[in-house]
Amino acid sequence: MSYRSPWMTDDLDQLRDLTRRFLAKELEPHQQRFARQHAVDRDFWRAAGDVGLLCLSCPEQYGGSGGTFAHEAVVIEEQARIADDCWSFNVHSTIVAHYLNAYATDEQKRRWLPGMARGELVGAIAMTEPGTGSDLQNIRTSAVRNGDSYVINGAKTFITNGTHCDLLIIVARTSAQRHGKGLSLIVADTRDLPGFHRGRILDKIGQHGQDTRELSFTDVRIPAANLLGTQEGTGFAQLMTQLPQERLTIAVSAVATAEHAVDLAVDYAKTRTAFGQRLLDFQNTRFVLAECRTEALALRTFIDYCLARHLDGALDAATASMAKYLATDAQNSIIDRCLQVFGGYGYTTEYPIARMYAAARVQKIYGGTNEIMKEVIARSL
To answer: What amino acid positions are annotated as catalytic residues?
Structure first.
């Protein structure tokens, strides 16, 4: 397709080329091994930092590249172009780093962000608990002030980067105030941290290369100075402020993956024959792919609109929720129809379309389920 996103620039074209070459060398050949070991290599993070792909939109004074969310989006799109479901770049760079950039003190930023930009520190955020899911207001993990420390007890689950994380933002309850009023964000340096335990790696139906696991805290002591923000009890508001970017990140990944699925299906339909003719010569195949291409392009223009609003600082929670639910619903639908073009081969994991199919399903769940997205939208009506 000749369409070019209006937010693209020559600088971003250069970043795309760099990212494509890096992923082709350092990630794509190792995807099956990363899937077997349920994590990318630890050195992969340092390699990404060495070429400048981490914390792209963080200020240069803290080790970042001084770019915008558009720079992050380019990397996410290039991951989609190789059907990558191993490297959780988005959690590290577009989520954790931005919490630190938004709420950390200058001293905290200088202590943590340069290491994240170099890949020496891997970031994760511990929101979800076994009994809460999307209901963040009912988090039970406690952080009790004791002198110059918080003593943290509780359990988290579905934590991406759980294996490698050195910096962990913990969403914990610092007071008995009900619902979101008692929540705070506290940063833990997990290296040699007594009482911190990395639990089992979760056996997911897709995204096998991501180190998603359970974490637990037993009388874990964290310096009180590691609180994010100027006072306790602001954690829920901080989460709500940052969630639109997280949801836009998911939407960018969704549309790029949907586009890639159509490309794969078209290429396959042009070369595969059945009953003496190419699959693309069957009207049904042509019509299905025509529908998928149209839907992907329409979705792309909406996500570009949302991305432009975000770059202008005007992306609201309702519109971000529209982007997240619409894009991930479409992603699943388009990939499903494209997989059908591959026939039986589409059900084998040696073909990227099969891995894309399995990986797509969780997109409608994390970052807030699509049902929650509709609630957020409905409240704005």
So the answer is: 246
